[in-house]
């Protein structure tokens, strides 16, 4: 069996970690030994947001995430930040490193905003918010994190992507006409290309840059309204394990990949553990209903 990843002594920042995928990633990285800085808008109380012109408040706070990490024996630090506010986004890396003793080894760009609407009808404000979350914020945060990683001669940047970044299946299924996810998908595709290009730029400095996406869909407080009730989903632990796998090897060994949560552990023979690291989960073959364009080897 492959040796468990050990990131003890490392500091990780996970954006959008008051709930859902970000919370799961924070838990898994902490279980592997990292001090995890969790960030989002919801510190002690859920923060209100907007979707389809209405106010929406989702469950989950940073303080709850910290409590879950600490209950499992890990260490987490909460820092509130709104990535749509440029000053808060630009200062976040420095604040996170200062709170964790002056270093930052791992950056996970997970925070997101989803408001699906057909492109012909989408307000420019929704377009701008989508691009801000999935391209502008990862650009700003990665740029700010690189000097900390250069200082210690290593680093890991992981961008959370989506299978929606892949080309739509032909002949086009009916949902392509009404789902309204074109701009979201385009932003994720651009994020994948940024991941690969930045990996090429930083590999000589031993800074790995990879992306991880769900192989199908993961139910979270933010995504639940976008997923049909009868659509089969996957356990978030497989994605969290894939993020961990992208967060410890030298860049020469693992960089520039677009890994998928069910595919990567399966093809790389990586044991998937529970979010607290205590139990080994069943080895699960990638589902047949995942996008046919997903690389079946992840190499």
Could you characterize what this model shows?
This protein is of the alpha/beta class and 299 residues long. It has a single domain (11-268), classed as NAD(P)-binding Rossmann-like Domain (Rossmann fold), CATH 3.40.50. It is 35% helix and 15% strand. The protein is built from 8 helices and 9 strands. The chain has helices at residues 20-31, 62-71, 86-99, 124-152, 175-178, 182-202, 236-245, 263-268, and strands spanning 11-15, 35-40, 48-51, 54-57, 75-80, 106-109, 155-160, 207-213, 258-260. Strands 5-2-1-6-7-8-9 form a 7-stranded parallel beta sheet, with helices on both faces. The protein has a two-stranded antiparallel sheet with strand order 3-4. β8, α7 and β9 form a beta-alpha-beta unit. α1 (20-31) runs parallel beside α2 (62-71), α1 (20-31) crosses α7 (236-245) and α3 runs parallel beside α4 (124-152). The chain is globular. It starts with 10 loop residues before the first strand and ends in a 31-residue tail after the last helix. The relative contact order is 0.15.
List SSEs in N-to-C order.
EHEEEHEHEHEHHEHEH
- Treating each run of at least 4 consecutive H or I residues as one helix, how many helices? 8
Q: What is the correct CATH architecture?
A: 3-Layer(aba) Sandwich
Average pLDDT, all residues: 92
What's the gyration radius in Å?
18 Å
> What would you give as the CATH superfamily?
NAD(P)-binding Rossmann-like Domain
Structural class: alpha/beta
Low-pLDDT residue intervals, each spanning 5 or more residues? none
* Shape, per Cα inertia axes: globular
- Give the terminus-to-terminus CA distance: 19 Å
Number of structurally distinct domains: 1
As a percent range, the share of helical residues equals 25-40%
Strand order of the largest sheet: 5-2-1-6-7-8-9
Say what the CATH topology is. Answer: Rossmann fold
């Amino acid at each position: 069996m492959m040796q468990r990843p050990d990131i003890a002594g490392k500091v990780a920042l996970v954006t959008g970690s008051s709930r859902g995928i970000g919370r799961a990633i924070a838990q898994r990285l902490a279980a592997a030994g990292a001090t995890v800085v969790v960030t989002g808008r919801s510190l002690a109380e859920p923060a209100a947001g907007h979707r389809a012109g209405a106010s929406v408040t989702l469950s989950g706070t940073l303080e709850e995430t910290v409590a879950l990490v600490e209950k499992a024996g890990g260490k987490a630090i909460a820092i509130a930040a709104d990535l749509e506010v440029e000053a808060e986004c630009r200062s976040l890396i420095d604040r996170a490193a200062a709170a964790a003793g002056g270093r930052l080894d791992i950056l996970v760009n997970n925070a997101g905003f989803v408001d699906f609407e057909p492109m012909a009808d989408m307000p420019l404000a929704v377009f701008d918010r989508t691009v801000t979350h999935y391209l502008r914020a990862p650009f700003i945060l990665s740029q700010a994190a690189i000097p900390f990683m250069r200082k210690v001669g290593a680093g890991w940047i992981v961008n959370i992507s989506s299978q929606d970044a892949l080309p739509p299946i032909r002949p086009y299924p009916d949902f392509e006409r009404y789902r309204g996810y074109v701009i979201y998908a385009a932003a994720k595709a651009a994020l994948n290309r940024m991941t690969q290009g930045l990996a090429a730029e930083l590999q000589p400095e031993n800074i790995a840059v990879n992306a991880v996406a769900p192989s199908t869909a993961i139910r979270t407080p933010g995504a639940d309204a976008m997923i049909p009730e009868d659509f089969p989903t996957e356990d978030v632990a497989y994605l969290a394990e894939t993020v961990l796998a992208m967060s410890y090897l030298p860049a020469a060994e693992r960089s520039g990949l677009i890994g998928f949560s069910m595919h990567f552990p399966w093809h790389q023979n990586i044991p998937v553990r529970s979010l607290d690291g205590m139990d080994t989960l069943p080895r699960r073959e990638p589902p047949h209903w995942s996008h046919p364009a997903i690389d079946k080897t992840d190499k």
